[in-house]
Amino acid sequence: MSELPSSGLAVALIQTRTPATQAEALAHIEPLIRQAAVEGAKFILTPEGSNLLEQRKDRRGLAITTEDQDAVVLALRRLAAELGVWLLIGSAIVKSGHSGDDRAANRSLLIDSGGGIVARYDKLHVFDVDLPNGETYRESSTIRPGDGAAVADTPWGRLGLAVCYDIRFPHLFRRLAKAGASMISVPAAFTVPTGEAHWETLLRARAIETGAFVLAPAQGGTHEDGRKTWGRSTVVGPWGEVIAKLDHDEPGVLHAKLDFALVEKARASVPALRHDREFAGPL
Predict the structure, then answer these.
(1) Residues that are catalytic
(2) Would you call the peptide bond into 238 cis, given omega within 30 degrees of 0 as the criterion?
């Protein structure tokens, strides 16, 4: 756990190793959120797949329900209201609600201090890859990608929403920044090979390009379904500097303070968001 500076928005990133059922997931994550609030956080963010992390199709299909019936989503909304904090459910795996498509949504939910849902974002880019170590992922077979980006107002500034694999698509982050986001969330469940190679570099690059804080709570360790995730939850400042980081895969709480004057300073120093030009090609 990092020590808190004296001023700024107190945020906390929750690092988890989410179990494969909602009941176990809630028992796992609730104490960490309570700890974060007791330690002073006003805005708390959880990772991708906070309600369950399960690739085995028979178990996954039985576990997934609608957003308004999901036990973790409902409980965390109540918890945000009880604690008087804003909470980003980094993502919940829930039924998408699209007729004729039985794939789930990988949905980020921003909850205000009254327990209300302020914003929803369904992960735009699904992870379909064959890694050099032999691991294969076809997220598109079970996750319906979203159709649009999302930026939401908070008491401290605008938050842009992204999830995991979205980090590799800089044009999305540029759109979020140009829509006024001073902080961008990237809850994740990164694989170990890609996490070790690219996680911090990508987070720092997106922060530099946007002049925004990047908040990246992560899953970490070996999960019940056999997958291994990288952990290393990280907060990056708008100049690209890592201001807080967990250096391990274990569940825990990462604290940081965000000084939004640094966003203005970074964007004034390198005003690239104002310098887009139309251009032709390549063909």
Answers:
(1) 48, 123, 164
(2) no
Q: Are 121 and 151 in contact (CB under 8 A)?
A: no
Residue 1 in any domain: the answer is no
190: number of Cβ within 10 Å = 28
Tens digits of per-residue pLDDT, 207-253? 999 999 999 999 999 998 888 999 999 999 999 999 999 999 999 99
The tens digit of pLDDT for each residue in 170-220 reads 999 999 999 999 999 999 999 999 999 999 999 999 999 999 999 999 999
Strands 181-185 and 213-216: parallel
- Residue 180 lies in domain: 9-270
Q: Which spans in the chain are helix H?
A: 22-38, 57-63, 71-83, 170-178, 192-210, 261-269
Residue 101 lies in a domain: yes
Residue 277 located in a structural domain: no
- Evaluate whether residue 257 is within a structural domain: yes
With beta carbons less than 8 A apart as the criterion, state whether 8 and 258 touch: yes
Supply the pTM of this predicted model: 0.94
Whole-number Å distance between alpha carbons of 53 and 44: 20
Three-class secondary structure assignment of 31-56:
HHHHHHHHCCCCEEECCCCCCCCCCC
What's the total number of domains in the chain?
1
Q: Give me the CATH number covering residue 162.
A: 3.60.110.10
